[in-house]
Structure formats: structure tokens, C-alpha cells
Design a protein that fits this description.
Distance between the termini: 21 Å
Number of helices: 14
Helix content: 40-55%
Mean pLDDT: 90
Shape: elongated
Structural class: mainly alpha
Oligomer: single chain
């Protein structure tokens, strides 16, 4: 739901996180005392692995951006699908040994790398939950995010260590109850894609019961919000996969409170408060309605997308 630009969350400005990621990945040695790159190059010497991956270095795969990941999938899967079942099985075993996410790299390399180098705030998929780090009593940083494989490692095990295939997310979005192993390839756009523009193309729309005259709403039961996409269908699958409409129904109280405040604080009342306090009108308005600034990064606060869109619906901004 919110765009993921890694540079916006770096702890150290101008830090070359891509270069360091590849270094950290190769610092973790296999039982053979080889790095991931050395194992990959050894596999390239012969057999089916060479036939499938001969056009790629490990760096090509691990550091490929979102658009290149799609090209890699198209190329490699076509080649794999032409193999016999026996060769597919043998290749899959080699791939899993090399791109070993869970048992080898997750806890010792990947989670520490993202925790130590980035300050993420809210889940990029839903914008509902915080995914911030916190310090334990021994000053050790602990993360609350999970690294979701946008292109799941079950279908694409060779992308299990690819940096741009990781989306920091909340446990709910990364659970079997929501995304699970849903195959997003060619059906869903990733938050770190350069063309990701959910903020402008999709809006929360306010729906009120017919009994709600002039925004006089008695109960949150009379309120509903749904995401509506304008001028494209690029995010239809995204909304469905992450069950955004269903999950946001549980937070109608936020919208109900905004409507109540809009009724209690019309512009005439806000101007009275300005005269009484000397605080500028726009500041009073922002404080009362918890308004989001026009150029504010929505990923920094939970529910900021919802609040911004409903504020527009109510004519508050």
C-alpha cells in the first residue's frame, strides 16, 4: 500500500546497502568452507545447473531489481519446464542447498542486515501495523518486521536470497491467513517496483447508510470504507491478495471518529478556537483531525493512507 524506497529508511546516509548486502551474504560460509558465490561458481562447472544458470552470476540473481527479477523468472522457468522430471528434481535439490534461506541465512545474515541498516516504520503491504525495531536491555536491536518473499520461494527457490524480493512486512501480511504462498508473478505489483503508485491510483471511499443525513452518523455500523482504483486495474489483485478491504472493516472506528469530529468542529468553530488561542487555523485543524501533510511519507504512520483519503472525502484537506 505504501511505496518502498530503501534510501528513505537508511540509518546511515549514502550507505551502499546493496554492496554490503552481497558482502555479508558471502561472509556466511557453507560446510565446505566456501562462500555462496564459490558454491554457485562450482555448480556452474557442469550439468543441468550450468545449462539453466550459465547466463547469470550469483550477483546477477541476488542483486537484480524488481524488473530484472521478472526477466529472470521468465528465462529460467522456461528452461526448467523443458527438463525431465529426474533432472528437475536434482536441480531443485542443488538450488535449495545454495539458496538456503530459512536454515542458513535468515537469522544470521538477512534479518540482522535489515535490522541494523534500516528504520522501517509500518508494513508496506497494509499500512496498518508498526514494524519498528526496539532495543532489549543488552542494547541488542530486535526487529518486529518479517521479510516476505514477494515471489515466493516455493515457486522460485532461486530468488530466496534476492535482495529486492524481500518486502519488510507485518506478521499478518506474511501469514498463511493472508498472503501465504500466493504467486504474485505477473498478477501483482510489488511495493518496491519503480512503477508502484498505490497512493495515487487507489483511494479509500466513504460509504454511509441512507439514514446518515448531512454526515450525522449515530454509529460506526452505519459507516463503511472500500478501496477504489481509478483508471487502471493494476492493484485489483494486490487488494485481493492482502485482503485489504476485509481487514480495514475492523477499523471503521477511525473513520467514525473523523466524521464525529467533522460534525463537532465545523470551520466556524475552528475559527473561534483560533481567535481564543492565537494558534493558526490550519494547525488547529491538523491537530484535531490528525491530518496528514500533503508530501508526508505515508509509511511512517499506521493508517495514514486511510486518514488521508477520508480527510479528502470529508473536505478537510
Amino acid at each position: 500500500m505504501t511505496k518502498l524506497n530503501y534510501f528513505n529508511y537508511l540509518k546511515k546516509e549514502k550507505f551502499n546497502f546493496i554492496k554490503q548486502y552481497y558482502v555479508d551474504l558471502n561472509n556466511k560460509k557453507f560446510k565446505s568452507k566456501e562462500s555462496a558465490e564459490e558454491v554457485y561458481n562450482r555448480y556452474l562447472q557442469s550439468g543441468t545447473f550450468r545449462d539453466i544458470f550459465k547466463n547469470y552470476t550469483l550477483k546477477n540473481i541476488v542483486l537484480a531489481d524488481n524488473n530484472k527479477l521478472k526477466n529472470i523468472i521468465n528465462d529460467i522457468d522456461i528452461k526448467i519446464n523443458k527438463l525431465t522430471e529426474r533432472k528437475k528434481k536434482n536441480l531443485k535439490e542443488k538450488i535449495k542447498k545454495l539458496f538456503k534461506y530459512s536454515d542458513k541465512f535468515q537469522k544470521e545474515v538477512l534479518t540482522p542486515f535489515f535490522t541494523n541498516n534500516f528504520n522501517f516504520k509500518t508494513c508496506f503491504y497494509c499500512n496498518k501495523d508498526f514494524i519498528t525495531n526496539f532495543e532489549k536491555e543488552n542494547n541488542k536491536l530486535v526487529s518486529t518486521f518479517q521479510l516476505d518473499h514477494f515471489y515466493d520461494k516455493g515457486n522460485y527457490p532461486y530468488l530466496a536470497l534476492s535482495f529486492y524480493n524481500f518486502i519488510p512486512s507485518c506478521p499478518t501480511c506474511n501469514s498463511s491467513k493472508v498472503k501465504g504462498s500466493e504467486n504474485c508473478f505477473e498478477t501483482c505489483i510489488s511495493p518496491n517496483d519503480k512503477d508502484f503508485n498505490f497512493e495515487n491510483k487507489v483511494k479509500f471511499k466513504l460509504h454511509l447508510n441512507e439514514s446518515c443525513l448531512d454526515l450525522h452518523v449515530i454509529s460506526e455500523k452505519n459507516v463503511d470504507t472500500k478501496l477504489k482504483e481509478y483508471h487502471s486495474n493494476d492493484y485489483e489483485k494486490y487488494i485481493k491478495i492482502f485482503k485489504l478491504n476485509e481487514r480495514y472493516k475492523a477499523h471503521k472506528d477511525i473513520v467514525f471518529e473523523m466524521i464525529q469530529k467533522a460534525e463537532l468542529y465545523p470551520e466556524s468553530r475552528l475559527k473561534e478556537l483560533q481567535d481564543l488561542t492565537g494558534i493558526p487555523f490550519q494547525q488547529i485543524k491538523k491537530d484535531i483531525f490528525n491530518l496528514i501533510d500533503e508530501n508526508e511519507d505515508l509509511s511512517k504512520k499506521p493508517f495514514s493512507k486511510l486518514i488521508k483519503d477520508i480527510s479528502e472525502e470529508l473536505g478537510l484537506i
